[in-house]
Write a structure and sequence with these properties.
about 675 residues, Glycosyltransferase, 5 strands, about 50% helix, globular
Length: about 675
């Protein structure tokens, strides 16, 4: 079957643009898995490798069958060490004390001598960054696990929290989905306080000796303010009661935690299908007495092993999770846009990708359904995570399926695949409508998960205790709605547009929660507003487009550092990247600026940097996990987003050239 109606010859430099798009299409098609999906590597910073080694040390596996792997993981940690001795949480970032202490501990745990040059540099960097007492909550738990810090220095995470009823102001459902999956197994760790001390020569006593000599003390966790002080008082009270042996509900709470976890193992790639809860699950289950050969512990290890990725240089890295649904949906979107302008492209790759997505629709209730009455329908980010479909992936799947649906409509005909596609789109849109927050926006996993008070508890320093609306998600959902015919005047759309208008920054940009940062949020907000019928000359859209133009770099590209989450002065500033340049170009085209010099220069920047195989190079982290805490590099961002940008810029240039020619002909006739 052939898809499309035109020819892939309409790019600013027609032949060059057509060849560039064709090469990228070939690159993507050649990497499709046999079952129809796509998945690129997902890279984080050194903390995953460090935590993996610490887990192996606690589990007694670091010197056994996992010894070679532990050394390969440690080699990657050393590769990521900064010149000044510490470790950052993104390329080009400053030393992060928590990442650095964990890296130092991991290297010591595999036998790296303290007197080697890398370790001496690391100690100096850690001391400058505040020393081991300056680390965050989760790092403290890892240190306590292997006897390097007392559990008294960790925040209390009592398992009794799982027993709190839903009507109580603070309960398990009131925290974000990802925090929920970490808190429950972590509370088992708190209840049993497991410790396997490292041998003295593999510990980090020297770091604490330096800190004591500097008079740093035990440090204080959590934010400042009245409520934060209140929660620290509650934390102290919980610890006092436990020391006195007063925990009457502990046995019941532990059993409830175990049940809650095991229920969510079913149909999932581990608890939450992400690295931290999988690790905490192993620790939590073993702490409460589950043997190594128990089915649940073995399953957790299997899921963790699935995140281990050997590298070609001999090192080994850990992935935070897998991204097949996300990568497949965006790839389908990109290939469908390519097929719309090239009727020689075979539709088989698209059809297999669509079938794969349709087979992974989640039709069962999850945590979200405790607050929302709607037929279950949605997609998760990973291969399997049935309790946690998310708004962003579901919206992107709708966009991809709708792009495919439009191609099929252009070529005529109907079949079972189209009927399934239409039904899935309908269910997903109803679910997305039901998940709209009271403020008109959308969050990631839940509706109205906005209790700011929870951000004051001592273990909230991972900056993700709640799941509020964000402009990039609102823009994505509006784009999905626009693809299937929703327009301004529809109640859900109007509330979403009002939300975006209320969240636009004074300079015209929008914050981006799940991509770095204002470039990402501004692009996606523009796409969403225009998709549902907001005019390109609307003041909000025009201001956003102006912001993008103002932040284009002299060479033609766009870039933004993750530092912009901590310092607004970095908004729109940083090393230019293919993904961020593509977002800006696509945003400007959507805003009606397709014939602008900014788009022409941005397109040329992309074309100049494309490799012969159709790919682009990108080492920067342009994905966001937890702002100011954890960032990501999606390997395929450098592929499918530039493809989309090149195609859209080409179509805009063709329309502009046609309009110019029409005017010229008209003027000739009049003359």
């Amino acid at each position: 079957m052939k898809l499309g109606v035109n020819g892939l010859k309409t790019v600013r430099s027609p032949r060059r643009g057509a060849d560039a798009a064709a090469r990228t299409v070939d690159w993507l098609q050649s990497r499709q898995h046999p079952d129809g999906h796509w998945r690129g590597p997902l890279e984080g910073d050194s903390i995953l490798e460090s935590e993996y080694i610490i887990l192996l040390a606690w589990a007694g596996r670091i010197d056994g069958q996992y010894a070679d792997r532990a050394r390969a993981v440690a080699a990657r940690i050393l590769d990521l060490q900064l010149v000044d001795g510490g470790w950052a949480i993104h390329p080009g970032g400053a030393v992060d004390v928590s990442a650095s202490v964990k890296a130092y501990l991991a290297l010591k745990a595999v036998g790296q001598p303290a007197d080697t040059e890398p370790m001496r540099r690391a100690r100096k960097a850690i001391a400058r960054a505040g020393g081991p007492w300056a680390v965050n909550s989760f790092t403290r738990f890892y240190l306590a696990l292997v006897g390097q810090m007392s559990y008294d220095a960790c925040p209390a995470v009592p398992p009794e929290m799982v027993l709190l009823p839903s009507w109580f102001p603070i309960n398990l459902g009131s925290v974000s989905a990802w925090s929920r999956t970490m808190i429950v197994p972590l509370s088992l760790m708190w209840a049993f306080k497991p410790v396997r001390p490292l041998p003295p020569d593999r510990g980090i006593a020297e770091l604490f000796a330096d800190a004591r000599s500097a008079g740093r003390g035990a440090g204080r966790l959590g934010p400042d303010g009245w409520w934060a002080s209140c929660f620290r008082g509650i934390d102290s009270a919980i610890k006092l009661l436990e020391r006195l042996g007063i925990a009457p509900l502990r046995r019941r709470a532990v059993a409830a935690c175990r049940t809650w976890m095991l229920e969510r193992f079913e149909g999932s790639d581990g608890l939450g299908a992400i690295f931290p809860p999988i690790v905490w699950s192993i620790i939590g289950l073993k702490s409460m007495g589950c043997p190594d050969d128990s089915e649940e512990v073995l399953e957790c290890w299997r899921q963790l092993e699935g995140l281990v990725e050997p590298e070609q240089n001999g090192t080994t890295r850990l992935e935070p999770c897998r991204s097949p649904v996300w990568d497949t949906a965006i790839t389908i979107k990109a290939l469908a846009e390519a097929a719309a302008v090239d009727d020689s492209l075979d539709g088989e790759h698209l059809e297999r990708g669509v079938d794969w997505l349709l087979d992974r629709e989640i039709r069962t209730p999850g945590d979200w359904s405790s607050r929302v009455a709607c037929e279950p329908a949605g997609w998760c980010f990973e291969y399997a995570n049935r309790f946690y479909p998310d708004i962003d992936d579901t919206a992107m799947v709708v966009i991809g399926l709708a792009a495919y649906r439009s191609l099929r409509a252009a070529s005529g005909g109907a079949d079972d695949r189209l009927r399934r596609t239409d039904a899935a789109i309908g269910r997903a849109c109803r679910w997305l409508e039901s998940m709209q927050n009271s403020d008109g926006g959308w969050a990631a996993f839940d509706r109205d998960n906005t209790m700011e008070l929870l951000c004051k508890v001592p273990f909230a320093d991972h900056n993700a205790m709640i799941d509020p609306s964000s402009p990039d998600l609102a823009g994505r959902v509006l784009e999905a709605f626009g693809r299937v015919g929703y327009r301004v005047g529809h109640a859900t759309v109007d509330r979403g547009c009002d939300y975006l208008r209320s969240r636009q920054e004074r300079d015209g940009a929008w914050f981006g929660r799940w991509g770095v940062n204002y470039i990402y949020g501004t692009w996606q907000a523009i796409e969403g507003l225009v998709a549902v019928g907001v005019a390109s000359d609307d003041p909000a859209v025009a201001a956003a487009a102006d912001w993008l133009v103002d932040h284009q770099q002299p060479g033609g590209g766009w870039g933004e550092s993750p530092e912009s989450y901590a310092d607004r002065a970095w908004a729109g500033r940083g090393e230019p990247t293919p993904s961020q340049t593509a977002w800006a170009v696509a945003g400007l085209v959507a805003a009606g600026r397709g014939d602008s010099e900014a788009v022409e220069h941005g397109s040329r920047w992309l074309l100049d940097r494309q490799h012969d195989d159709g790919a682009w190079e990108e080492t920067a982290f342009t994905g966001t996990g937890f702002p100011k805490v954890f960032y990501l590099r999606y390997d395929y961002y450098r592929i499918y987003f530039p493809l989309i940008a090149v195609l859209r810029a080409g179509r805009a240039a063709a329309v502009s050239a046609r309009d110019v020619r029409v005017r010229e002909v008209h003027e000739e006739l009049v003359a």
